[in-house]
Amino acid sequence: DPGAGGYTSQNPNARTIQILDEMCRHYDKMQDTWRTLAYRKGITTLKKQTTKITTARQAAALPFIGSRLADKIEEIVLTDRLRKLDNTRDDPLDAVLRLFLGIYGAGLVQANKWIQAGYRTLEDLQTKAKLTASHEIGIEHYDDFNCRIPRAEVEAHGDIVKRTLGKIDDRFEATVMGSYRRGARDSGDIDMILTRPGASLATLRTVVFDVLIPQLYKAGFLKASLATSRSNDPTGTKWHGASCLPLSNVWRRMDFLLVPEEEMGAALIYFTGNDIFNRSIRLLARKKNMRLNQRGLYKDVKRGRRGEKLNEGVLVEGRSEKKIFEVLGVPWREPHERIC
Ligand code: DCP
Ligand code: MG
Ligand code: MN
Fold first, then answer.
1. Which residues of this protein are catalytic (predicted)?
2. Which candidate, 65, 145, 71, places its Cα nearest to that of 102?
3. φ and ψ at 231, to 5 degrees?
4. CB 316 within 8 A of CB 298
5. What's the CA-to-centroid distance between 274 and ligand 1, angstroms?
6. Which of 83, 87, 99, 224 sits at 20 to 30 Å (Cα–Cα) from 195?
C-alpha cells in the first residue's frame, strides 16, 4: 500500500523498502509469522524516515529495527540486492514449499512432511500421498483458491447468502467482513458474519448448519465444506468451505462466523481485521490489564509472571464496536483505516 505512511517512490529509502517488502512477502507465504511481523514493523519505520538510512548502525537506532534487519538494510544499500532473497528465489525446495503452502489447510508441518516424503508437485500429492478430503479439494481448486476475488464478485456471493437466509428467517443478518469491509478492491476469500438479534448460539447453529448450508448446497452454490466446528465442538461458530456463482465454474473460499448479538461488537473488530491491526489492538488491551478476543473485552485480567492469564477477567463490553474502542481509549478507526 504505497499510500500508507506517506510513502511514495520519492521516499529516500524506496529501494530498500521495496526489497524488504519482497522478503517480507516471501516470509508471509512461508507462514513465518515472526519474521513477517518483524519485517512489517521495520518497513513501517523506514517509510516514516525523511533521510536515507545507509548504515546498519543508523538503522538499528530506529524503533522496531533489530540488529539483523539493520545488517540487511546496509547490505541492500551497499549491493542493491539481498542475498537471502536471491537464494530463496533460486532454491527449488523453497519453490516447492511455497507451492504446497498454497494448498488450503496445509501448514508448515504438513508441507515439510510432503517434501520429506519426496513429493515435489501437486500431481505427486494427488497420485502418491494419502490426502484428507480438504487437501484434495485444496489441490483440485489450487488456482481458484489462490487468485484474488474482484469486489463485485465478493458482493454477488454475499447477496446469495443474504437472500437465502432472509427467506429462511427475515430477522437474520448476514454481513460481508474481512478485507471487503476494509474497502479492498479484491479479496482472498469471502468472510461473512451471520447473526440474529436475540437468538442464542444454539439457535444460530441450528438455522445455519441444519437449514441454510444444506439449502445452499442444494442450490448448487456451496460446493464443499473444508473446516467446520459442527461435529466435534458444540460451541463451534465457524464454517469454512467453497462457493460458486451460477454460470461460473470458479470456486471461491467462503468463511462463515456465527455471532450472538451480545458479542457482535467484538466479532466485528475481529473479523474486520486486518490481522496486524487485531494484534496491535489486543496488545494494547493487554497493556491496560484487559483482554480482547472475538467475543468481548474483559477487564481485571490477572496474569502470571510469564504473562499467562490466571483468570478470564470480567466482561466489560462485547455488543458495540464503538464502545470497545472507547473503553480501550483508542480513537475510532473506520474499517478502511484498520490497515497496518
Ligand atoms: N484474522 C486474524 N488473525 C488471523 C486470521 C484472521 O485476526 N490469523 C481476522 C482478521 C482478518 C479476518 O479475520 O481480517 C479475516 O481473515 P482472512 O484470512 O479472510 O483475511 P482478510 O479478509 O483480512 O484478507 P483476504 O482478502 O486475504 O481474505
Ligand atoms: Mg478474507
Ligand atoms: Mn477468511
1. 72
2. 145
3. -70, -40
4. yes
5. 6
6. 224
Structure letter (DSSP) for residue 331: P
Question: Given the DSSP bridges, would you call strands 190-195 and 252-258 parallel, antiparallel or unpaired?
Answer: parallel
137 backbone dihedrals φ, ψ, rounded to 5°: -65, -40
Give tens-digit pLDDT for 10-54: 789 999 999 999 999 999 988 899 999 999 999 999 999 999 999
Those residues with Cβ within 8 angstroms of residue 17's Cβ, 6 or more apart along the chain or in another chain: 7, 11, 43, 46, 47
Q: Which distant-in-sequence residues (6+ apart) come within 8 Å of 208 by Cβ?
A: 194, 239, 256, 258
Length of the chain: 340
H or E element in which residue 308 lies: none
Q: Are strands 173-176 and 186-187 parallel, antiparallel or unpaired?
A: unpaired
At residue 315, the pLDDT reads 95
ipTM: 0.99
Is the beta carbon of 273 within 6 A of some atom in ligand 1? yes
C-alpha cell at 326: 472507547
For the stretch 75-128, pLDDT in tens is: 999 999 999 999 998 889 999 999 999 999 999 999 999 999 999 999 999 999
Q: How far apart are CA 299 and CA 314, in angstroms?
A: 5
Closest residue CA from atom 3 of ligand 1: 275
Among 47, 72, 162, 223, the active-site one is 72
Q: Residue 175 in 3-state DSSP? A: strand
Q: Does 180 or 4 have the greater pLDDT score?
A: 180
Q: How many helices (H) and strands (E) does the chain have?
A: 17, 10
72 is catalytic: yes
